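Researcher: Here's my situation. A collaborator sent me these components and asked whether they could plausibly form a single complex. I don't have experimental data yet, so a predicted model of the whole assembly would be a useful starting point for our discussion.
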Amino acid sequence: MGLGRLGQTLTAREIFELVKKDLERVEREISLESVASVDAVTTISRYLQDGGGKRLRPILVLLASQLVGGVSDGTIRMAAVVEMIHAATLVHDDVIDIAKTRRGRPSSNAIWGNHTCVLAGDWLYMQAFQVALRERNFHVLDVLIALTQMMVEGELLQLERIGKIEISEADYMELVDRKTASLFSACARLGAVMGTIPGAASEALETRLGEFAWNLGIAFQLVDDMLDFTSHEKVLGKPVGSDLREGKVTLPLIYALEEATPEERLLVGTVLTDGNYDRAPFAEILRLIQQRHGFDRVRERAQSFTERARAIISEFPDSPNQRAMSALTELVTERDH
Amino acid sequence: MGLGRLGQTLTAREIFELVKKDLERVEREISLESVASVDAVTTISRYLQDGGGKRLRPILVLLASQLVGGVSDGTIRMAAVVEMIHAATLVHDDVIDIAKTRRGRPSSNAIWGNHTCVLAGDWLYMQAFQVALRERNFHVLDVLIALTQMMVEGELLQLERIGKIEISEADYMELVDRKTASLFSACARLGAVMGTIPGAASEALETRLGEFAWNLGIAFQLVDDMLDFTSHEKVLGKPVGSDLREGKVTLPLIYALEEATPEERLLVGTVLTDGNYDRAPFAEILRLIQQRHGFDRVRERAQSFTERARAIISEFPDSPNQRAMSALTELVTERDH
């Protein structure tokens, strides 16, 4: 993440300091719970955990818990659970996308093969549910299982749309909702439920924090899909333009195509047909999106979601934690990777 | 299934008549719960459901419930849940085995592709858990999630052993336990828990019925692995000798290899290396197993498990239901597909 703005907002470092100790507990919990009776799974889990990632989802769980009273043991477990579910979806996604790299390293399927990774993903899902089940809280399980199913359906929808140029903004938003925003929302809700003061998180409070995180999640994914075009391989940890190469038409391109000439549409169609940039160079696609204001419009759109998130969090009384959640929204939209 | 023996034991038809009406309710429940918001999943689920199969697992749930008092609405749902979990494992297994046919039809991955099937399997798991979650019974969820994880670990172990000739009987039994017997056991236990009279199924009763089904499951898989060699493609719904072709050394071969000459070991090794019977004809492998008493010994072994299952069920008071469960053990060992 880049640094936050000057003024009242917190920097990335300051946010991180707020959750640092708890995040270490989460990491230990993930390590502890990722030991399978089959070595391959333990190895893959560890590989995924060591691969870094921003831990945004566990951080959301922690911040939400803190906001409603404090981090409990259940908060730590739930933060581990959401990260494990996230890891499970990544393993299966990489199998499906035939990804070669993730976060600057070979993807797990590139090392262990698709077959092992299908099962390792299954295992991670089940292990996450096992840990969640220990809370003996049906509401938590309702949230997690509905969420996972929603994400799987999102992946399936995406698969059906691979290679298609006729993707509407609504189609795209549905995927972003299912693939990213729902998980963000669940993180904040679970964090609220797990706060130390039992019953402190009313249903209304849980819902409101969920809405905050949902808006944050949409903004996060919009920026992510923009960075897939505008960032650099070293920063992204995978080649630029991967989405389009894999047949995924995302919002910058959807906006650009609305104003594109038939020739420009043809250019985009060529990448979708070929699955590479040999005949339709990436630089030309990039220029096309820029000229047709694709990036400007996506940036505006993301901004409107972060503003909504910020408006929700401003309803809460001022505290370092409340300010951290507000600052998070800016960090998400202004990040460069 | 073949017909049962003469005498007190029930025939397959008679067992089926006992559960027929309830089984129809289970089928309706599965249809109802397999409708996804993504068409591909609904289609795949329906394809799997229509593909037949013996419905042994739901039948076990129903019989166990009946034995402890009667079939409840929860029994029907749980019978649907175990069949959906079974279907989910089959979809992922077929992806992993790169299977082309199952039950005499193209396998789901052959029609819809591996990618969709990975996600369809995920969806079926989640949907099964959703339905189970509605029971608001933590014990049920404990059983189901531990079971699913156990099965996934079994598949992973199997994957690690693919193509290896040095498989011990203990290695093999571990896989059979994880892949088949655990699910059978869970079916009987869940059936016991779901019986109409609340609390009728004590922990001891649940455990005992679980042990019955566990032994039945082992016998079932032993016979299954024998039939993979001795049956016919039309009856099996897939080519004979598939296991060995896929690199899986099962018990008939493990026993035969114990007494095999170096030349015979080489013959088996050739199939494992080649992944086909071009250089080491299937007929020769078959003769080898026969000559080395592989089938005789597996048949005896299966028999000892069915006897244990029958001994357990004989502890229960005589009733049509109790006799059906006893007869089931014979049908399983004497079936020809």
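Model: Some features of this prediction you could bring to your collaborator: Residues 203-230 of chain B form the longest helix (28 residues). The mean pLDDT of chain B is 90.
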